[in-house]
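Q: What would this chain look like folded?
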Amino acid sequence: MELTFVGADHEVTGSCHYLRVGDENILIDCGMEQGRNVYENIPLPVKPENIDYVFVTHAHIDHSGMLPRLYQDGFRGQILCTPATRDLCEIMLLDSAHIQMQEAEYNTKKARRRGTNENYDPIYTMESATAVLKLFHAYPYDKVFDLCEGVKFRFTDVGHLLGSASIELWLTERGEERKIVFSGDIGNRNQPLLRDPRKTEQADYVVMESTYGDRLHEVTKGDYAAQLAAVIRETLSRGGNLVIPAFAVGRTQVLLYFIKQIKEKNMLPEYPNFPVYVDSPMAVRATSVFEDNDMECFDEEAMEMVRNGINPISFRGLHLTITMEESVAINYDETPKVIISASGMCDAGRIKHHLKNNICNPDSTILFVGYQAEGTLGRRLVDGADEIKIFGDPYKVRAQIREMEGLSGHADKNGLLDWIRGFTEKPGQVFVVHGDDEVATSFATCLEEEHGFRAMAPFSGTKYDLLRGAFIRTAKGVPIHREGGTEHSVSDSYTKLRIAEKRLSQTIEEAKGIPNKDLDKFTKEINDLCRKYRITPV
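A: My prediction, written as structure tokens:
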């Protein structure tokens, strides 16, 4: 009975974990890496044709996006998830396949123009995406099911996305049972439409995410609509467009919910009829899935609207664009407007066309409402880039760049702690995954030092014996080799040292008001440490 960590270890995307129970080979998620790939991931421990089951925590591409490739390489087992996840995966995997094929065709044509004969193959084809959808099996929340000999499972609503789930697995081998829980992505509390994350009471082991394990969301529930209204007012008053890169599944529907509130409560009386465009065919299809799954997934506030015959994500002035001609026409209309378009990290899709038409306009605003992974165009904009490239051409960043972190679908540090404290007894081991390098390590340290959990952040390749409760192999992080750099291992201890460096800097900054004799003592202690480790004190 072994657990092997494959993907999203000291990284945020590409979630994948491998379980061996008796003769059964099981994956939990099979996600695609997005943005900058930081660390090398080990290959799957078994061939795809030998994998029996794949559990999918939710439909986002970084958790489901490599399923068609798995099929293409020989997988023919079962894929298990909730009904809403199955419905959303149908939309997202077909869209992903379309993007893979388009990019391969574009790169091949580009190679031809350079005078080379290179052929670029897509990661997977539309045929593979269509075929893998036939392997999906949907199960409702809150019921325990027998999967096979020695394995039972249950899905619990974790409030991150429509259909998202934490997964409880009861594993039996040689007459001994162990229970492991995979958190999936834990939702932000008090979000619209979706229920708050539900907790689990007992587990021997927990694998949990840490995306925002080092920060707190500043916006409270009552502030969301007001803050969004303020950004809309500022932008429209300048005569510009508000462009919102948003994930087609999840963030787009939440934004529609708040804009409906803004319009119905007349929060912008000077602009009562401002137009809103959702320019993403996938977002339009996903919105219909939200409407179809309201009974199972909506929170009480949204359900009250449904019971009263009100659609919580539809309003006057909403335009849903499907065709490319409709999309192009948006930028020829000079009326100030709100444009919601995918992808949420600006690396693909129609959002790049809207950025191209608005990024140089100081009257326009680009508003980010979700996580921006390292290496993405969205992350460069959030980090303050003065110039970006879109379709290979440079553009000066003159538009206003704004963020609304509180709209994140991920729990912040307090939300993560609240979820893990839901266990009535502390699990024997907590594995912290799905977080940037320093974030995952700092959150694991927080769990250990401040909350009494046994916790660690594994790198890809780490293997754990669930029966004995012991590590079989503890891997080190091997960064992706890049031109101009050297490939080397990064130890968990060194990452902790860098976190301690930040704490020391913060302590020094806050030490200005303490007595001089204490400052002198503090300085001496720092210099003594530097001498001890052969570092010349400044």
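The chain has three domains: 2-215+409-472, 221-407, 492-532.
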